[in-house]
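Recall that a protein's primary structure is simply its ordered list of amino acids. Everything else, from secondary elements to tertiary packing, is in principle encoded there. The following example makes that idea concrete.
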Amino acid sequence: MLIRSDIQRSIGAMTIGLHQQIKRREKLKAHYGLREREQQAQFLYSGTCGTLPAEGLITIPFNVIFVGDPGMQRDSQLDRPIIRIAHDVLHGPAGMIPYAYVSSWQTDVNYNYTGVVINAGVHLPALSVAGATVPSDLTYKILLHVAVQGWCCLVDADGPLDAGGIQDDGS
């Protein structure tokens, strides 16, 4: 029968403690490091339809930094984030057509994507047709849904992080 000495217990504790520390760092890297993420936003806009399209710009700053050149780290080799736009028409006349598209991307000095400018609007083509019945209420209210997906990392409010997303203390 082996008797465990104090030194054996210390070595065992150090070994187990080291493995636990490695696991904690891996979890932090998974949370703060580069990976495929999605950022979602909703905006309510309203107004009055007319014979010409009514549109406006909506600026969406990101809480993450989408990497401009991810290299071979993504499954997809797209050169910019993927954006999905949808409309939830809360109120509006029949025949109204809501639309939205990317007007421009906001980038930092390293050409990483930090935000997007969306041009959102509505159009009621029936107003320009001779003899068409004009709705009594031309007001609209729309909830715009925007989802942006890509290879990115979280923005650190305390300062820059290394590539793994962890402040390196040298250990």
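The CA atoms of residues 90 and 141 lie 5 Å apart. Residues 6-32 form the longest helix (27 residues).
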